[in-house]
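User: Sequence recovery, please. Input:
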């Protein structure tokens, strides 16, 4: 079953609790939290205090995507704040194996994110260690961008590697996901679809989540 992870980057922060409750009613099982430092990406977003506040406000799985330099210095703080999924960028981690193992030692699920121009083969050595791989389908740093079509092929290629090597990591896609492309991404092998503007930009975010779940999970789809 493809799961939907609304990205709070696109939420109205003046009504964040209300908007989180709406996507939860719609069937979302997790929240995607983009953490940006203005160095790895050209924007600054949120940090540990917001994660702590969300943890107190919802039981949804908090999926923290660290778009920051030296993410290994901060994974413990985010895990303690309530993140249950933490992804770091391959491009930001000279000691990726160590960072993955550290996240798992903290009791969180460990993920590795790849920018659009980064090839899959850089993950050859760590794929057996990760719980999920996050494929960026836009260049990271800003919400509201259009999906890069080649990302769908990249998802399919990664799903093929997963099957060939008999691994069980999940594939997550982040960037430009909406109802016009969600089904194709899911069909390529994606397990978690991150959507910001496509959900929080809708008049009824709860119904937008329901619609995306229907689009990506045809009747009879197995629940994983």
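Assistant: Recovered sequence (224 residues):
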């Amino acid at each position: 079953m493809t799961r939907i992870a609304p990205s709070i980057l696109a939420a109205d922060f003046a009504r964040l609790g209300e908007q989180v409750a709406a996507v939860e009613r719609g069937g979302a099982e997790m929240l995607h939290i983009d953490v940006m430092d203005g160095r790895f990406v050209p924007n600054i977003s949120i940090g540990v205090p917001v994660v702590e506040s969300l943890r107190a406000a919802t039981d949804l799985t908090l999926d923290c995507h660290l778009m920051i330099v030296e993410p290994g210095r901060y994974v413990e703080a985010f895990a303690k704040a309530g993140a249950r999924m933490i992804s770091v960028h391959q491009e930001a981690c000279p000691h990726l194996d160590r960072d993955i193992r550290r996240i798992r030692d903290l009791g969180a699920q460990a993920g590795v994110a790849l920018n659009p121009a980064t090839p899959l083969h850089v993950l050859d050595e760590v794929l057996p260690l990760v719980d999920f791989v996050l494929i960026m389908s836009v260049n990271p740093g800003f919400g509201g961008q259009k999906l890069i079509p080649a990302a769908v092929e990249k998802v399919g290629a990664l799903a093929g590697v997963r099957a060939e090597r008999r691994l069980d990591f999940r594939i997550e896609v982040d960037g430009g996901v909406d109802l016009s492309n969600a089904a194709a991404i899911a069909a390529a092998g994606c397990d978690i679809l991150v959507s910001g503007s496509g959900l929080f930009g809708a008049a009824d975010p709860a119904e937008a989540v329901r619609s995306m779940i229907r689009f990506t999970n045809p009747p009879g789809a197995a629940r994983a």
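The two ends are 6 Å apart (CA to CA).
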